Here is the input.
Amino acid sequence: MRKRAGKKMPIHKLQNESNKEYHARWMREWRLANPDKRNDSQYKWRRNNPEKFKESYRKYKAKNPEYFRIKDREKQRRLNGLPLPTRPCPAVCEVCGKEEKKIHKNGTRFSLALDHCHSTGKFRGWLCSICNTVAGMMKDDYEIIFKLAEYLKPHATSGN
Here is the structure.
């Protein structure tokens, strides 16, 4: 090992190591040893090559759609002032126990809605669009919801 810019860096390839593997190892160690230089060079390249950066970012986003779907959802929640959930989204609504019924134009099912208390901002659970709409229309007033349930009880039909 030889010192480069005050840091120990590997200068010899290991036995049975290809040039590609050596370069990857060298870059990995350099990035760990020089985080400020790495960030500076990345930002400088992005500033000087905005079109290339946009194209490479677009390709990366196309290869990793699930990662960006999650990141976009988190960003949307922050912008809308929604809390971060304290547990993962289940497959069914936590109130009625059914899957979400709404379907996107592309044929995929909507995800469950993140329910939260509007006065405290705390996460409460995951609801389907119907249960979420009912809770919102009842202004989250459990007394009204209870009275509605009592009203519907004698008129209930099985299978709904």
Remarks:
- The chain has a mean pLDDT of 84.
